[in-house]
Amino acid sequence: MRRINGTALIIAALVATVGALAFPVWSYADRSGTGQDNLNASTVATQWGPLSATDRDFLVKVRLAGLWELPAGQQAIERAPTKAIRDAGDHLVVGHTDLDVRARDVASKLGVELPNQPNEQQQGWLRELSAASGQEYERKFANLLRNAHGKVFSLVAQVRHTTRNTLIRQLATDANQTVLDHITMLEATGMVDFDALANEAAGRATASPTGPPPPNGNLPAAPAPAQPSGGGELTSQPSTRPGPPTSINTNRPAPSSS
Predict the structure, then answer these.
(1) Rounded-to-integer distance, Cα 103 and Cα 173, Å
(2) What's the whole-model pTM score?
(3) How far is CA 3 from CA 6, 14, 15, 24, in A?
(4) From CA 185, how far away is CA 89, in angstroms rounded?
(5) What is the DSSP code string of 174-222?
(6) If 63 and its partner were Cys, which of 18, 46, 89, 114 is the partner (CB 3.0–4.6 Å)?
(7) What are the strands, taking DSSP E only, across the chain?
(8) pLDDT per residue over 53-94, tens digit each?
(9) Cα–Cα distance measured from residue 130 to residue 161, given in angstroms and rounded to the nearest whole number
(10) Is residue 63 within 8 Å of residue 100, measured between CB atoms?
(11) How far apart are the two ends of the chain, measured CA to CA in Å?
């Protein structure tokens, strides 16, 4: 019995030793998949700076957005009974025609292949719009397009913040203006369901919200204004137009051929 117990102890010790030796190897292999490693592995060098997988994905998404949102805007111009929807459609057509020129120009310089038709989900949205009419069509148009633009807006911000490629950075800047303009015009229709947008986003959230406690009915003290304390002449001016904006100024030079 003692011999058996001793053998069992030796076997247990060997198993523990092998496990201890294997754990660092497993941990190291797992660490090889970190974000930094993935960034380095998926990035290629170009004369305009490193081009990451996120950069390339963004370029494809700009192209895909135009492939379904431009015809959706054209359809709104032709079918919508209200001026607000037609105006939003007009901005979609103009904005995505311009962005598509810029995206194709950047893709040709960087050697990135672009799709030539919307993906299956986007084709489904176009079919859904084509099958609707009247107020149902207007609601679907405003909410499908507003939701799509809101989701891509965060990607534009991420790319604009993190890209090391000058061509992608400029495209993100252009896309930011265009997407914000489209969001503004779609919201001006009065058809956007903000409760649905908030609930969908909440369903995808993984972190608990932070911030000050909810109001308790008592008005807090007014915060002090943030104002410059030093001298010197200031030359830039904030927007002074009263009331909510109806569109965003997207005037910008055509893409350079160099």
Answers:
(1) 12
(2) 0.78
(3) 5, 17, 18, 33
(4) 9
(5) HHHHHHHHHHHHHHTTT---HHHHHHHHHHH--SPP-SSPPP-SSPPPP
(6) 114
(7) none
(8) 999 999 999 999 999 999 999 999 999 789 999 999 999 999
(9) 37
(10) yes
(11) 85
Least confident of 21-30, 185-194, 222-231: 21-30
The token duo for 211 is: 């911030």
120-128's contacts with Cβ under 8 Å and 24+ in sequence apart are 122/64, 122/67, 122/68, 123/68, 125/68, 125/72, 126/68, 126/71, 126/72
Tally of CB atoms within 10 A around 225: 5
Average pLDDT over residues 111-121: 97
* DSSP 8-state class, residue 51: B
Instruction: For residue 111, give the 3-state DSSP assignment.
Output: coil
Which band of pLDDT confidence, cut at 50, 70 and 90, is reported for residue 239? low
